[in-house]
């Protein structure tokens, strides 16, 4: 697999990131559209391949980078991969996003039969470690690579079921903490294994959205484990993690500044100007072009306009800014839309 740098670029993504961190001149702001399974469309692979074949996982990342020239590759295991390894009923199809079938954890008494994952021994996780080894050799000198480990509340919900988990936060809080400890320790094992390849860590925990669980439960059940994980990611990789949070997260912003993160990715539901004022003194921000209304369904002019506005605000961020989408761009989006997104990034970044 060969890495091809877009001829419109003056720097590789690794050079750009290093220049920004060193306070030196750079050509444009970093740009990381959240593409997820959409990347499989570039090389004509299936979504199943993207989750199960190490060679094809690597090929998908390289093919997508060679076409778009974005500033970060990302592989799993993600929330689905870790939940799958822990016994969740994850259903994969060739052309549909993964989803959960039946809840596998019917009763908390069953937790006595669970052990945290040993990432280096678990066959499901080794799929992603094998892909990491391929990318570390061919791509890491040119493009920063991140391994996603999902988020504790989200993985727990894949095992227990969202409705049951939220109910249990009130009725059986001790058992929820038992489950979250299992999940967190499993994520830490994956982080440590990925650290061998020099990758940074990415996390996303949509079920921890305060619009879903409320700020009280976020403080009790989500924040302590996310704090532990961001600290651990830095300990085992030497790099701060990236975190994406879905929804209107204003009520929990006071916790974000205490997390050991490189940048916080915000949903397009968030006012980027407000993030500039209240969050950017403490941490870098990524965001937040609307992935559906603008990137998937917008015209070229609408994509350019949204990118220009986000870049204008982002350049005023005190701790730095990464141009991104507010959430994942849907599978099935025309690839030309991403081409326009990157073209706009090069023009306005």
From TrEMBL:
Residues 19-348 form the Uroporphyrinogen decarboxylase (URO-D) domain. It comes from Dorea phocaeensis. The keyword Metal-binding does not apply. This is MtaA/CmuA family methyltransferase. Keywords: Methyltransferase, Transferase. One of its GO terms (biological process) is methylation. It holds the Pfam family URO-D. It comes from the Bacteria. Gene3D superfamilies: 3.20.20.210.
